């Protein structure tokens, strides 16, 4: 079985109009929410083996905070330019190339690509992945290459303002 945790980067800071979209950092709320959401995973012993992230600053900061909270080594964080501004098709192509030695990978990126990917991979009933939102999808395969549209099973959906505990969703 393969497990994919999709995470949208934390809330970004729009205060400096001179920064490009790629260079925008997390704002105060994003800096607070990323470690909080990672802690929710840790509290439920949900720890990916690897993180693949967009190299955009806000995604990179989110990935670093998740890795720190979850105790994931820096060598297990991969920054992939293919994640930035990716469509669901682009993201699926990247997922299909994941190394099969990893059973559980977190992918940190951006909307609308992530939300579109979730809608295509499983029957989630979700219309938008909020900033710092997380979705866990399981696939009944031994190879990432086999992941395709409508082959996933949604295990949980969590976001910073959610009042539902992950452990109650997983029970």
Automatic annotation (TrEMBL):
Cross-referenced InterPro entries: His_Pase_superF_clade-1, His_PPase_superfam
Name of protein: Phosphohistidine phosphatase SixA
Residues the record lists as binding substrate: 8-15, 58
Catalytic-site annotation from UniProt: 9 (tele-phosphohistidine intermediate), 85 (proton donor/acceptor)
Pfam family, one: His_Phos_1
Gene3D superfamilies: Phosphoglycerate mutase-like
């Amino acid at each position: 079985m393969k497990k994919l945790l999709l995470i949208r980067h934390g809330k970004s800071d729009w205060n400096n109009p001179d920064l490009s979209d790629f260079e925008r950092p997390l704002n105060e709320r994003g800096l607070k929410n990323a470690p909080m959401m990672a802690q929710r995973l840790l509290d439920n012993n949900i720890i990916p083996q690897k993180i693949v992230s967009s190299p955009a600053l806000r995604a990179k900061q989110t990935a670093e905070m998740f890795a720190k909270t979850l105790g994931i080594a820096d060598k297990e964080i991969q920054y992939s330019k293919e994640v930035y501004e990716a469509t669901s098709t682009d993201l699926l192509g990247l997922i299909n190339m994941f190394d099969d030695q990893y059973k559980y990978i977190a992918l940190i990126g951006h909307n609308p690509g992530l939300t579109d990917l979730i809608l295509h991979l499983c029957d989630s009933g979700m219309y938008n992945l909020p900033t710092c939102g997380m979705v866990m999808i399981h696939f009944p395969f031994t190879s990432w290459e086999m992941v395709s549209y409508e082959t996933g099973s949604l295990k949980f959906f969590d976001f910073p303002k959610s009042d539902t505990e992950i452990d109650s969703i997983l029970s």
